[in-house]
Amino acid sequence: MTAIDDLLARAEITDVLSRYAHAIDRGDRPLARTCYHPDATDDHGRFSGPVDELFEFFERYGATLAGTYHFLGVPAIVLEGDRAEVETYCLYRKNPLDGEAVFQGLRYFDVFERRSGRWLIARRTVILDWEHAAPPPPAVGSPDTWKRGARGEADPAASLTRALRGG
Question: Which residues form the SnoaL-like domain (predicted)?
């Protein structure tokens, strides 16, 4: 692999990771599904198995959440031909529709494979390093002049989601 090929692979893998986080937080599960190979597997803690079943689980579980937030660190990538082992640190907050928000320190341990010229996740293991009840909302909230994140077309960055989908 040339130095340029190495840089291109790392950029594509990093793009897949950020597309996944964006899609999940915006509630666009079909876009998140594009980050995996068709036969991928995922051990996501609450679910472990084929990726299509994971997204069926996400449909049910996602309906119990008001929102999620993924903040990804820089991935550590070890390339070996058409295979890469990738570890990405993630700060994750989930806000249930009822109940307290939870803040977690996670790591995504992924095996990426390049098939038909595309790097996608072939196997994912989510590692939970720590979790806490999230802090309560501030006593004095930010004014309504702030743009607020939302799922779907209500999000101020919905044009980015459409562009990531290719449309």
Answer: 6-125
